[in-house]
């Protein structure tokens, strides 16, 4: 497992906590970090993701089917999509890697068919 994969898993967890508990993202990141130093990649996919969250949610809403909206998705799905949208927007990693990693997280943490939704939305971003 790549270290970036582990960081994405941690990032998803921090974003999930932030969305679910309406908790400050910085506190969530510190809570899941093994030490006080935050990896720059983890910072980008969490704290930067929250900074531009509204922009990413708008883009995700445009990519969803007309009968769906971001707020109807589960918090895990929201976390994966916002994190991936941030990574794509900031050009941190190639699109195919970002999509593949998001699909892997969805297959591990979401309902059985959710990865298809994640893949479809990210393809349109």
Explain the overall architecture.
- The protein is mainly α.
- 72% of the residues lie in helices and 0% in strands.
- The protein has seven helices and no strands.
- Helix 3 crosses helix 5, helix 5 packs antiparallel against helix 6 and helix 5 packs parallel to helix 7.
- The longest helix has 19 residues.
- It is globular, with a radius of gyration of 13 Å.
- The two termini are 26 Å apart.
- The model has no long low-confidence stretch (mean pLDDT 95).
Summary keywords:
single chain; 125 residues; mainly alpha; 7 helices; globular
Mean pLDDT: 95
Overall 3D shape = globular
**Beta content:** under 5%
What is the helical fraction, as a range of percent? over 70%
Number of strands: 0
What oligomeric state do the depicted chains represent? single chain
Task: Tell me the radius of gyration.
Answer: 13 Å
